[in-house]
Design goal:
This protein is of the alpha/beta class. The protein is built from 21 helices and 12 strands. It has 3 domains: 62 residues; 176 residues, D-Maltodextrin-Binding Protein, domain 2 (3-Layer(aba) Sandwich); 202 residues, D-Maltodextrin-Binding Protein, domain 2 (3-Layer(aba) Sandwich). The strands form 3 sheets. Strands 1, 2, 3, 6, 11 and 12 form a 6-stranded mixed sheet that branches. Helix 6 links the parallel strand 1 and strand 2. It starts with a helix and ends with a helix. It binds beta-D-galactopyranose. The site of beta-D-galactopyranose has 14 residues, from strand 11.
Amino acid sequence: MRRTPLIAGLAAVSLMLAACGSDNTADSGGSSPTAAASDTAAARDTAAASDTAAASDTAAASDSAGASDTAGASDTAAAGGTEVSASKVGDGGAGGDVGVFTWWADGSEKLGLDALTKIFSEMYPNNKFVNLAVAGGAGSNAKAKLASDLQAGNPPDSFQGHAGAELTDYINAGQIEPINDVIDSLGGDKVFPKDLLDRLTVDGKIYSVPSNIHRANVVWVNNEVLTKAGIDPKKAPADIKAWIADMDKLKAAGIATPLSIGGTWTQVELFETVLISDLGAEGYTGLFDGSTKWDDPKVTTAVADYAKLLEYTNTAADGDDWPPATDMVIEGKAAYNVMGDWAVAEFTSKGKKDGVDYSYWAVPGQDGVYDFLADSFTLPKGAKNAAGTKDWLMTVGSKEGQTAFNLAKGSIPARTDISKDIFPPYQQWAMDEFKSATIVSSIAHGAAVSLGWNTAISSAISKFMATKDQAGLQTDLVSAASDNLG
Ligand code: GAL
């Protein structure tokens, strides 16, 4: 029986819900104004443990955690379902060290990992989580270390990989094992979107457990800076040109850096969003299967728009990380930052209030388009503690794990059976958008292109920062595509 850990887990989630607070009343980005966090909802949705024992533990826990109605207990039991197999939850885990490799090494990203590892130790107390995180957003340092460890036959017990092309690289290289049994135990396509599972699957074999879904094409806005310049912070400009006009207004109002950027991968992310605006979702998606050519005139326009945007930014070195760029908006030193929605965790961790201090919208010209990426966790071939890894994967895929992790990380759950009511306004908006938007794949975050192609695009973008040679950038992009598409 695991009564105490579950109570602790519920209490922690209740605290996070309290932190979500009722002053999160933003209507920015069309987000729902109500942060309908309730203990009852928390109890229902945190009831990841699916066996009867867990369900009754959870029922008890919901009382202790102060669930406001007693019906919550039976709801919880009913909601338990069969997401996590009884034997896995009840057996305490395989035992031994479980070394997990990520790039969530510090700041708000570590808070997300910590929330997940806490649930792991509650669900599988026999195991010891060993944190192998290597700092550097988007895996800018981690991926090279991982590649050399895998090459040397020294894999971690599990590592973070992006759903889509990046994961396919690891599969094709024979570096990871199928884990269909774990996905089946978690509930398979009853609890994970089929499209997402497809991005983890080759020849019917599923190779990772998704932890979350992030959105890359979000503009984060400092409300005060815009308001002072006479611009409504909650209203997205219609397109890139209108956005640039606002940046001119900001410059005229004395804001030296309307748009903040970080190192190379953040520039790749900014560039991909300009591609989405200028090519449209379909044209953009065609870049990755050859149906849109990289020498298309619309790519030329995107390169020109990107070059123009760089006239409004700070200067950044290749290796600069993302938090300083987002912090420039948080601190009022910049008006805008294009960043994946892990940024919302940074705003929260600095005490900023959604709708009051900051707003967000999709990058202009792509309302209703969701530039998607998903983190997932693998079982590497030759992992020393494969049984412990499966415990980790069960945690990553559980309702409890996904609730705790995503509340802290800014992403939305990969699972479809977690109520949006327990999330703050940003994630509520993201969950709504994810359901209705056109989904495209991120270049910078492994969804659209392989590791090799990403490296080639990143080199081209880094070179462009120095040369500002627009024709040269397009030529480099064309050759990166031909090297990788064949
Ligand atoms: C992405 C990753 C996100 C977040 C981001 C910034 O690649 O998928 O979870 O960590 O990098 O580091």
